[in-house]
Amino acid sequence: MRENSKNRRDIARELARKYTTMTHEELDVLENLLVPMKFAKGEIVLQAGDVSKHLYYIEKGLVRLFYYKNGKELTEYMAVEGSIVICIESLFNEEPSRLQIQTLEPTVLYAIPKKQLEVVASHHGNIQVLYSRILEEVLKRSQVYADLLRFETAQERYKRMCKLMPQLILRAPLLYVASFLQMTPETLSRVRSHMLAEESKP
Predict the structure, then answer these.
(1) Helices first, then strands: H and E counts in the chain
(2) Which helix (H) or strand (E) holds 139?
(3) Which end of the chain has fewer CB atoms surrounding its CB within 10 Å, N or C?
(4) Residue 10: CB partners within 8 Å, gap ≥ 6?
(5) Kindly report the CA angle at 95 between 106 and 49, in degrees rounded to 5?
(6) Dihedral angle at the C-alpha atoms of 16, 33, 84, 104, nearest 10 degrees?
(7) Listing from the earlier edge strand, what are the strands of the sheet with 62-69?
(8) Alpha carbons 10 and 82: distance in angstroms, whole number
């Protein structure tokens, strides 16, 4: 389902403010790439087995990337307004995605077709900068998450998430938060109880 929420020009400006500066001509080009999409809570944006062809900017709402392993559903990532989400392996290898993207709230996304973005980026320097900085952001985010899982305890992981992603803690179902942090819901409940007890000490 597609529907305008904000003006596409507003979204182009938001992206420019976040990643680079742009001329009016470059804003026009970026604006014309944006495809507004509106989803109800619980809808699938990208199905496993489909080839990902877009980068997605979240104007409003909450999404998660998840996959199945040994019959179990595992949350790979979650994101709120102002974030870019990409199924990066499928997008760049042009292979069927093993990840799925699902909305956890009513959500408005702006899809940016990768191939069209690459074409215009080759002709417009600031759009090339925007594209490069988006990819850099996604790679850094992946590294932070990998290090969090490798080197930090369950309590440290939760504390880091509270600091880096406070909106997710408030809005996402705890089942998905636990899965994202690679712990059981019971472990997450104990971690939260311990933190509350620590905070309540005089």
Answers:
(1) 9, 8
(2) helix 125-151
(3) C
(4) none
(5) 50
(6) 130
(7) 44-46, 100-103, 62-69, 72-80
(8) 12
Structure tokens at 126: 């600031």
Residue with tokens 């417009």: 124
pLDDT by residue for the chain (202 residues), tens only, comes to 344 447 999 999 999 999 999 999 999 999 999 999 999 999 999 999 999 999 999 999 999 999 999 889 999 999 999 999 999 999 999 999 999 999 999 999 999 999 999 999 999 999 999 999 999 999 998 888 888 888 889 999 999 888 888 999 899 999 999 999 999 999 999 998 888 877 766 6
Q: For residues 55 and 46, what is the distance between their CA atoms, to the nearest angstrom?
A: 11
